Amino acid sequence: MPAVKPFLPKRLPRADLDWRALVPAIGRATRELARYDGILHGLPDPGLLLSPLTTQEAVLSSKIEGTQATLSDVLRFEAGEPASSGERGEDIREILNYRRALRAAERELKNNSLSLKLLGRLHAVLLDSVRGRDKTPGRIRRTRVWIGAPGAPIEAARFIPPLPARLPALLANLEAYWRGEELDPLVQLALIHAQFEIIHPFRDGNGRIGRMLVPLFLYDKKLLSRPMFYLSQYFEDHRAEYIVRLCALNGAQAWNAWTAFFLRAIAVQAEANGDKVRRILALYERLKAQAIALTRSQYAVPLLDRLFSQPIFASNDLFRDPRMPTKPVVTQLLRRLTDAGVLKQLREARGRRPQVLALAELVNLCEGKKAV
Ligand SMILES: Nc1ncnc2c1ncn2[C@@H]1O[C@H](COP(=O)(O)OP(=O)(O)OP(=O)(O)O)[C@@H](O)[C@H]1O
Ligand SMILES: [Mg+2]
């Protein structure tokens, strides 16, 4: 049985890293990330084209914590479809909060640097009116917490983060470290994520805020031209290893193994994300040409942009959009695209329930499998 004693991590920077051993992994992660940023940099409108990937990141980061909802569940919900159960509805609301927090952070970082204060505000958005509302959203915890099986007593904890009284000093040290210079910024980020999880500053949502920190930090340190880089796929694919490596961090040696794991995650995900972004861009270009040819309408491109920002939608929503033409014109445009197989009907209009359509290729590409 592990001791019922809170863990007190060493301050950052850590003096016990074996930098030499990390050099190849640092090189690979740096190269792949730079290549990814090159792709990001060349995008005409990254906010638009990456929009479904941002939602997918919110889905995957929340999935690590155990939510079951998928990207298409979230997109269907946004199109006005009811969630399949109360539980699923809560999942979806948490995911939408996650995306809202990510987008708020992207906006804030244009003018301000990354701070603990900002993380507090993101936490308040993340846990806004969902399961976490009784978990003091936006506030550093004043109670003990422990990590273990759901509902398990502290005696059965796998890990016990520091006592509340230790948090101000630990967080001040963490913030000073991330604002300062380290020999390598990716190693710095690996240590920051782990230290953040060990400190566990909030009563809940620490995993998600710690993962949100990744693109924000990279942008803040100017390693990315936009704060859009998504790592949760790797942690979700290697969930057991992610948790085991975090759990091992009460020993000095484990910090090197953790850092190597984290650098591998960056390299693998940079490559995978770059590939996905390239395919999204190719899809966009192909559909643009197709939509123009099919509709011969000046609204073809604005409509396509609308579909990329919301790839599952109720046709009603477009009728209300001031940027769209009149209802009969929209109806005709949608029919042409549906007949050509660009759009897929997920639900027929019946009574007061509107028709629901999907840009299926985009949803499936982002979800990584045939989902609609
Ligand atoms: N032994 C450990 N030491 C440090 N951190 C850990 C350990 N085990 C898990 N973690 C981190 O704690 C997170 C869970 O904490 P918490 O429930 O506060 O966050 P969350 O965002 O609600 O959940 P989560 O992963 O569960 O999304 C995990 O995601 C992981 O990042
Ligand atoms: Mg949790």
Q: In angstroms, what separates the terminal alpha carbons? A: 47 Å
Q: What is the makeup of the main sheet? A: 3 strands, antiparallel
Radius of gyration: 22 Å
Strand order of the largest sheet: 1-3-2
Strand segment count:
3
How many distinct helices? 16
Name every ligand kind in the structure: adenosine-5'-triphosphate, magnesium ion
CATH class label of the domain at 49-269 = Mainly Alpha
Judging by the overall fold, what is the CATH architecture of the domain at 49-269?
Orthogonal Bundle
- The averaged pLDDT comes out at 96
Q: What is the H/E order?
A: HHHHHHHHHHHHHEHHEEH
What characteristic shape results from the CA principal axes? globular
User: Could you please say which CATH topology of the domain at 49-269 applies here?
Assistant: Fic-like fold
Unreliable segments of 5+ consecutive residues: none
Strand content: under 5%
